[in-house]
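Project standup — Tuesday

K.O.: blocked on the structure for the chain from last sprint. Re-posting the sequence here as requested.
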Amino acid sequence: MTFGLTEGLAIHLNGTDLPDEDATNDINDLVAALLDSVGAEGRMQSYRQGPKETALYFYGPSAARMADLIADVLPRFPLAQRCRVLPLPFALPSRT
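H.V.: unblocked you, prediction finished:
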C-alpha cells in the first residue's frame, strides 16, 4: 500500500458582489465543468454555502495542478467572477 498526502483546493464563489443575472447562474454547470477540467487529478469532496460566499472543496495529489487545470474554466462562468482560489492549509492522508 502506498501512502502519501492529498492536497486541498478551495474555490470561494462571491455571493454578494455579482450582478443579479450572474449570481443566478446554475452552480451545477460550473461544478460539472470544474470536475471535467480536473479529471483524474482531483475530485470535489464537499462544499459550504454561507451568507456571503459558497466554497467548493477539491482534493487531489497537487493543489497547484488542480489550480492550473481550472484556470481556464473559471473565466467562462459569470458565477465565478471575483472568486478566490486558495490552497487549503492542511493535507489529508491518501487512501491509495
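K.O.: great, moving the ticket to review. Residues 33 and 73 are 7 Å apart (CA to CA). The mean pLDDT is 87.
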